[in-house]
Amino acid sequence: MNILLVYPQCPDTFWSFRHVLKFVSKKAAFPPLGLLTVAAMLPHAWSLKLIDLNVASLTDAAIAWADWVFMSGMIVHKDSAHEVAARCTALGKTVIAGGPLFTTGYQEFPEIRHFVLGEAEGLIERLVEDMKQGELQPTYRLTDWPDVRTTPVPRWDLINLHDYVAMPVQFSRGCPFNCEFCDIVAMNGRVPRTKEPAQVLRELEMLRLAGWRNMVFIVDDNFIGNPKRARELLRELIAWRERVRPKMGFFTEASMNLADDAALCELMMKAGFKKVFLGIETPMAESLAECGKQQNRKRDMAESVRILQRAGLEVMGGFIVGFDSDPRDIFNRQFEFIQQTGVVTAMVGLLNALPQTELYRRLAREGRILAKTCGNNTDAAINFVTQLDREFLISGYRNLMRDLYEPKNYYKRIRAFLHNYQPGGPSLGLSWADLKAFVKSLWVLGVWRQGRCAYWGFFWSTLFASPRKFHTAIELSILGYHFRRMASRL
Length: 490
Description:
The protein is of the alpha/beta class. It has helices at 18-24, 33-41, 60-65, 78-90, 100-105, 124-133, 184-188, 197-209, 227-244, 262-271, 285-290, 301-310, 330-341, 358-365, 390-405, 407-420, 432-448, 452-465, 470-488; strands spanning 2-7, 47-52, 68-72, 95-98, 114-117, 139-141, 166-169, 172-173, 193-194, 215-218, 249-254, 273-281, 314-321, 346-350.
């Protein structure tokens, strides 16, 4: 049986990193881990092809080859997913769709008749049997959370690893916190479920043997959701690193309480973790209380960020404006917090109500929902009636983003980060790709684009003042080019 797995195209967003890709000679940021994992669950005798529309085009010939088409995606892929489904059905192919986009919004896809809702483990066997019989159900869904210890190693052989900036590996699903705006608890539960450390090591070893020598994104909802299990994995990663000396670094997502555990931070550093994304959200205590962000309350969040930076972790931050409790000067407060803490990669978004969240249910009860969200909270759109004037919010948001990524402000923020940052752990060294990216950045940032004077001032001051951190500084300056492009389009 021939199975075509299709991943929709991601629009140009904050997290697409599209404008950075040409510096590093890559086609996309990350491959579709969900489809690669589902592929590993299908019968070995079946013929599989995977087309990621972010690195290749979908041809009629590829569709004609398939007996069935599998598609996965997130909410941000909605438009592309509709186009893929329309093409496949027009050519007489049956589409089976799964992933977050369809789990929370399958009713919006009348052109697709079969859906796998939620997680695939424990469902694929039944789906495969129905496919063999030619009698598929409209929906497949488990009534409980599957055991991720049964999850197979993804089919890395279906992609060209070197098309991507980083490889995704998952250790756990779920998060113990229940922030009002977040859909993780609805999607993956509140009790984190973890793989065995040996499973993760197998996935990493397969990547290493396939020639991967770059960053790995541990794509957990909250890496420290189960801190005991996280420590177990980290100790195994440290031992593995000592045995095989892999040229891999890690980054992940975690909660702010990571800063309270110095021993855990040290393990992460020794294991090769370089960056961590935190949902910081807002410096406003009232807004944190409103959205149930308990892990960020009653703490000095700025100092928590600095603790992690001193522990050798670059903190990337998610921030939100548009809470009911936000004051009119929220944009200035966000700007000052981000600049002072040196959170260089600051993803600031307008609050949107995602399906199946507590926020969506509350706003629906209050009659404030206006539309479905597009899944991109950095596109200056809001899908509910806000307390602050809507146009005031959108205008303030646009100005905030442009101010944050204006060259002088951006380089000042990098300096604030480098002042606190104490790099440690295993060195990844410099690759030929790093050197090419450096040369390209000299031309694009130092000659071609606006902000060149600020760039050269930053370049020379960092080279002489912080030579050990110079590689990190150049990497961040390249990322800033993408962020400025995104901010200018708002």
